[in-house]
Amino acid sequence: MNEQIFKNEMAKAAVKTRCELDPLTLAAYWEEFENWDEAVFVQALQLASRELNFFPTVSQIRQRRFAIDRQPSRPAAPGVYECPQCRDRGYLEIYHPLGYQPIRDKTFAISKHLRTVVVACTCFKGEEMRKPIEPGKQNQCKPLIEFDSAVMKPVTTPIISEQVEELENFVTNDWQSSSQRCEWIP
Ligand SMILES: [Zn+2]
C-alpha cells in the first residue's frame, strides 16, 4: 500500500473519532498494514471508524477486514434489512467480556476497559461467518463464534454514558439472571 494513502486515511479516521495520532502510533499501524491492499485497508478502517467512536485498534481493523472478506452478499438498502440485528452484515460487534468485571467492581472506565470483539450473527447471513473457509481460499481466518444474547451485548454507537449504564445493567442484572452463568471468553 502507498504510505501517503495510509497516512491520509489514518488522519481522516483520527478526525472522525476525535483522536490524536502520534508518530509512534502511526509507525506501529504502518508496520501492521503496509502489506495490505490499499482498497481493503481503506474500507476496513472507514468501516471501523464509522462504527466506533474511538480510534480503532489494529485488531478491530483486522476484524472488519475479515468481515468484509467473508461478507456473503452486498448489504441491502437501508431500512430493508432482512436481519435488523446485524443489518445483513452477518456479524455483530460486542463488548468484550474482559470489561464485565471492572463494571461489577464499579471501576469501569471507557478509556481503560472498553474493548470490543466481532462475532457472527445468528441469522443466515451470519452462517457464512461461522463456517470455516474452504481450503485453498485466500484470506483464511477462523470461523467467528456465534452471538449469544444471554452472555454478549452488542455495541451501541456512539458510546455515551447512557449506554455504559445500559451495559452496567446487562452485566449486573441481565447477565447474572441468565441461565448461562459461566464466564464467556472469546
Ligand atoms: Zn443477522
Give the overall pLDDT as a whole number: 78
Our count of helices gives: 8
Strand content: 5-15%
The description of the largest β-sheet is:
2 strands, antiparallel
Radius of gyration: 17 Å
Order of helices and strands: HHHHEHHEHH
> Ions, cofactors, ligands: which are bound?
zinc ion
Low-pLDDT runs: 178-186
Largest sheet: spatial strand order: 1-2
Count of spatially separate domains: 2
Shape: globular
Portion in helices: 40-55%
Question: Explain this structure to me?
Answer:
The chain has 186 residues and is mainly α. It has 2 domains: 1-70; 74-186, no CATH class. 46% of the residues lie in helices and 5% in strands. The chain has 8 helices and 2 strands; from the N terminus they run ααααβααβαα. The chain has helices spanning 3-16, 23-33, 38-51, 58-70, 100-104, 110-113, 124-130, 161-177, and strands at 91-95, 116-120. A two-stranded antiparallel ribbon has the order 1-2. Helix 1 (3-16) packs parallel to helix 3. The longest helix is centred in the C-terminal third of the chain and has 17 residues, at 161-177. The two termini are 31 Å apart. Residues 83, 85-86, 121, 123, 125-126 line the site of zinc ion.
